[in-house]
Amino acid sequence: MTQPDQNTANKPKSAAAEWWDTIVVIVEALLIAIVIRSFIFQPFSIPTASMQQTLMIGDYFVANKFVWGYGKHSFSLGRYGDFTLLDFELPISGRILGREPNRGDIAVFRPVPQNIEYIKRVVGLPGDRIQMRQGRLYINGEMVEREEIGRTLDTDSEGDSREVIVYRETFPEGTSHTIQEISDNAPLDNTPEYVVPAGHYFMMGDNRDRSADSRVLASVGYVPATNLIAKAEARFFSIKDNIPPWQIWQWPANVRWDRMFESVNQ
């Protein structure tokens, strides 16, 4: 048996070979990132005030794409300004794999008339009756409990600041979360009764008087299960005034360090 030439075995790779190895590693890393982003977890950011204080303008969070299974919009990889990284519909009429959402889950979804992602809280399940009366939420004829816990100043994406009352709201199942109200007499504080169709969900923002949600049937309305994209899980970054995260020189004065690496349900 012949032995390999020692000089050949120890011969360093050429520059071209090293460049090729680097390219292969980069491509493999990108493919792994795309698979994770497509099938498992995807990051999102918050540009509006509709979910404050749970999710503030400038919060970045990760959402779980497999817990509810997959629908026709599950493989959108998001938009960056006017640029769409990847957006196509799968030929799926319902959902495959996963469980159904629970009341109180925070959902990323596509409203039927829209082609952009919304994020709201799941308030109504299929078959539920949902109504707002004088600022109070009713589910199946029963008023949902709420307890005032303070007042604060809420600023929307246009810089308009309003004093709001902060409540701890508790769903019939026992889960609770924070909501905000400017008053109990805003335009969406008195509504007809909505009956959630089979296979659909009723979504509402936690910033009740600054949220266009399922109460507005013409623009959001009932959300089909197939239009669910992901379940919000945890914040991983937060910066004031929607400052781009890459502007690291602005971090010391503007990053909300106390909001990082926390569950969105805290």
Automatic annotation (TrEMBL):
Domain annotation Peptidase S26: ranges: 20-236
Reactions it catalyzes: Cleavage of hydrophobic, N-terminal signal or leader sequences from secreted and periplasmic proteins
Classification via CDD domains: S26_SPase_I
Keyword Transmembrane helix among UniProt keywords: yes
Keywords: Hydrolase, Membrane, Protease, Transmembrane, Transmembrane helix
Pfam families: Peptidase_S26 (PF10502)
Enzyme Commission number(s) from the entry: 3.4.21.89
Recorded topology in the membrane: Single-pass type II membrane protein
Gene3D superfamilies associated with the record: Umud Fragment, subunit A
Similarity comment: Belongs to the peptidase S26 family.
PANTHER family: CHLOROPLAST PROCESSING PEPTIDASE, SIGNAL PEPTIDASE I
NCBIfam families attached to this UniProt entry: sigpep_I_bact
Name of the protein in its database record: Signal peptidase I
The organism of origin for this protein: Devosia nitrariae
